[in-house]
Amino acid sequence: MPVEFTFLGTCAADFSPRLQGDCKDRFDFDARRASCALINGRYLLDCGPHCPDSFRIAGYDTKKVTDIIITHLHSDHFNPDNIAFIAKDHPVTLWVREDAVVPQIENVTVVKMTNYEKYDINEDFSVTGLPANHDEKVFPRHLLIEAGGKKIFYGMDGGWLLFRTYMQLWKAGLDLCVLDGTCGDYEGDYRMGEHNSIPMIRLMLPSLRTVGTIDDHTLVYISHLAPSLHKSHAETVQICKKDNINVAYDGLKLSL
Ligand SMILES: [Zn+2]
Ligand SMILES: [Zn+2]
Question: pLDDT at position 49, please?
Fold first, then answer.
């Protein structure tokens, strides 16, 4: 069975005021919601401030969510009220880094994960946390997921890759590689220690090919785009095309 991967939000933390206006009830390429993604309708990667709206607009049922896997505790990725909303009438397991401090939420069981260890959530779904180059105060990590025989890297937030994370991705032969694309197509941004720019990703991809992390069959996407640092979605798609970088957008559903 193909694995369904849906981008429910693809924004960095600079949200558009239009989300409260003409985009209240719809997705728009240029009014992105907070980054989160859903696999097979039940495994949620991050749960930020817009998660309930994203579910409603995309037509997914929050009751089907069994597991929420958190990359880090910045407020655009971790919103306890919205986790409580999803878990209001059924049990949910929350997966966080082992040293993360999270509040108690009704119906939610917290599992603390040691980095580099693979956790089998189900017989056809496992996740490994890999340290990310991001604000250490919020327990950052990337996620390496195996779902239905497919390998997915969900790498946000984080600038470049840390050594041991990169080593874990050697010869991974990813089916889907989602990279932090916070900054646009320019050089010199000060955020290089916590986020990628498009030129950084251009440099990174050939090396990831060399070590077999990605190959011809890998879908490469950028997500977590900051609208204030990028041109429009349509222009960004054109900018990224020649390097085989795809640009995620809210509501995009992939079948792997
Ligand atoms: Zn973020
Ligand atoms: Zn962050």
Answer: 97
- CA–CA distance from 107 to each of 58, 62, 65, 248 (Å)? 24, 14, 12, 32
What's the gap in Å between 12 CA and the centre of ligand 1?
5
DSSP three-state, residue 74: coil
pLDDT, residue 1, reads 85
Q: How far is CA 12 from CA 16, 156, 159, 229, in A?
A: 10, 10, 13, 10
Quote the ligand 1 centre to 1 CA distance (angstroms): 31
Distance CA 41, CA 55 (A): 10
Nearest bound ligand to CA 138? 2
Into how many domains does the chain fold?
A: 1
State in Å: Cα 229 to ligand 1 middle.
14
Intervals of the chain under pLDDT 50: none
Q: Which ligand is nearest to the CA of 12?
A: 1
Q: List the CATH number of the domain containing 211.
A: 3.60.15.10
Domain housing 230: 4-255
Q: Which residues surround ligand 2, an ion (CB under 5 A)?
A: 74, 157
Q: Quick one: which of 89, 87, 116 has its CA closest to 102?
A: 87
